[in-house]
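Sequence and structure are no longer studied apart. As an example, we show below a sequence and the tokens encoding its fold:
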Amino acid sequence: MQTFAYHTPSSVADAARAAAQEDAKLIAGGQTLLQSMKLGLAAPSALVDLGQIAELKGIKVAGGTVTIGAGTTHAAVAASAEVQKAIPALAELAGHIGDRQVRNRGTLGGSLANNDPAACYPAAVLGLGATVHTNKRQLAAEDFFQGLYTTALEDGEIITAVSFPVPKKAGWQKFKQPASRFSLVGVFVSKGPAGVRVAVTGAGAGGVFRATGLEAKLAANWSAAALAGAAVSAADLNSDLHGSAEYRAALIPVLAARAVG
């Protein structure tokens, strides 16, 4: 592995200053970046470790909103009694990301910033109509995700928290790839302040997306029966050694129906 400077700021402001240097990279849990560096796919001149910044961690429920700090681990979200009560589907999702080591190292902000096309958290953020807060602005979910491993984040911009509106109903179903435990297809459904939403991860060639056809059916009748016989186009879906685009298309309405319950 190449040499690099290593910074451990204690505040978001300090982290932003350190991240401003040329070729510096922000690191949270390191689940993706460190592996990329080991493989020679990334060679930053400096790493800015966000792990010691207390203001990035924690969970708060108030005014019909669950706000989770970007540095909060998946394990902490899954174990939170507040999240389990307010948005059980979100706690369920967090509790089945990767394995125990990944859940205790990986963070909400790190997952969103990386925007892996098969990551679970993007489905919850888009599926609940959440807002992503950074050290510079607030971004609606639709504006944040912009394609494969691509987000609206600018160089050096730091995710500080995500606020999730508490839905009346929500559900999550994941058909995982056995080795990586990433979503071969994952579907998050919700009915609440942001309307009826169905967000799909693991299937889209461009990353997470909303299945608007399924949303229309559930808006008319929130039930698994409403999705009986529903179809999703295989166009623009992933096709790889784990499953064809047609296979993923067939899974989406099935998982959505199971998520509705």
